[in-house]
From TrEMBL:
Superkingdom of source: Bacteria
Residues passing through the membrane, by range: 21-43, 49-68, 75-97
Protein name: Integral membrane protein
Keyword vocabulary terms for this entry: Membrane, Transmembrane, Transmembrane helix
UniProt keyword annotation of Transmembrane helix present: yes
Length: 100
């Protein structure tokens, strides 16, 4: 019954109670790049930013999915990956990675 007396640890980033600094960093980078790519994708002049941020966000999100441990990390990575992919595809439609 000793385990019943423990106070529950509530964490937004890990559900197993252990720290995951690499996974948390990849999650934050992917979400940030996803937001940047998604927002700048709606402006035709910013296609370089949206396409590069989207591409890097897709790569970091894919690696983050590969090394993720908890469901919360995977959930946030999928949100960031989706936003990065939309930003990347719209940036490619508007002019691509090299300004074509």
């Amino acid at each position: 019954m000793a385990q019943a007396m423990r106070s529950p640890q509530i964490s937004l980033l890990s559900t197993d109670g252990k720290p995951h600094p690499l996974q948390d960093t990849l999650m934050a980078v992917t979400l940030t790049l996803g937001v940047v790519a998604f927002v700048t994708a709606f402006f035709h002049n910013l296609h370089l930013i949206s396409s590069w941020a989207g591409l890097i966000g897709i790569l970091t999100g894919a690696y983050g999915q590969f090394v993720s441990v908890t469901t919360r990390e995977r959930f946030a990575l999928i949100i960031g990956l989706g936003a990065s992919a939309i930003g990347f595809y719209l940036g490619m439609f508007h002019g691509g990675l090299f300004g074509g």
